[in-house]
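Quick one, T. Sequence first:
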Amino acid sequence: MNKQIVNYKNDEEMQSIIKAKQRNIKIIQIPMYLSLVGILLPFVGGIFDIYGPIIDTVFRVVPVVCIFIGFLLAILCNKKMKDLRVFIGQNIVLGVLEERIQVIDYSPSGYVDESFLKKCSILPTYNRATGSDYIHGIYRNVEFTYSDLELKTESQDYTANENNLKTTITEFSGQFMTMALSKSVNGFVQIMGKSNSGKMRQNRKAVYIDEKNNISSYLKTGDRVFDDRFEVNASGDDLAYSILTPQFISGLKKMGKRTRVQLSGNMGVIACYNEKNSFELIGEIKDNSDIELYRKKFRKELSDILAILDIMIDCCQGMIRNLMYYRKLVKESVTLIFENSPRELKEKQFFNTYVHIGKTKCNTGLGLDMLQ
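Structure tokens:
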């Protein structure tokens, strides 16, 4: 992707442009809402017993015209609101982002590629996706993406009377992130928050199976609070325990039980079902001080996002330290135990012997097959 290039406007000029855009949106919204009144005319005629050839024609034509006009105005209003979001994103939000991260790409109205969402096994099933504030950047030398995301399931129920009822269920609403791992994980670990509604658990996609047909296994960490809030699936217990350091467990508990994390290959995925929609303008801009207030709001929202990335980055660094330490420990164990063993045993690099490091029971089979 190309480096983001934007010519920033000063606050006074931005205030004038934003106020004009907000005024145009209001002008469109007034007739759009009034068009709903025309739809109610047939009910008014029925209530007051108003009938007649001309009245009947009016009651049939006016609602159709109002629906058509309201639909066109709604499209125009959405377009104006999107233009306002893009303007604020490029002239206010982008400046805030560049204070803390290296921005590769930023799209105020974009979100993560939907083909990736469809394959992401920690997300629930859905048939309609919307999102905003797609960010592709680098933070603490780690490449990541972010977007606000909303996933819904829409369905229609056709009755015997040829009427249909459209139902919409929100499956996910919150923050969705991906990050590059400095070392490729050979296998996978999924940490799934136990939603109190049960809907996200029931509507979850099939259990993840990687390219080598590794299937998940459930495990407990010994942390009662964490085990009550999260469910851990992994291609191997050793890999899961190397990732679930006390520091990472503490961070996950702060993120909340509606959080889902997956580490696999060279990518980490984080889905936080917190119904947050970051970097949005709420209310009207009246003067320059309002613009600065929104900058403070956006800085706080960015800090919350980066706090999640901090937890994940520290987790990955801890995982690598653990695995490197275990690898060193195993090599020393092999040298010590097999120094007087037959030659064919000396040639073996690893074996399933457990050692105790502090209070942690570790399998010395960790290491070579965990990281690539």
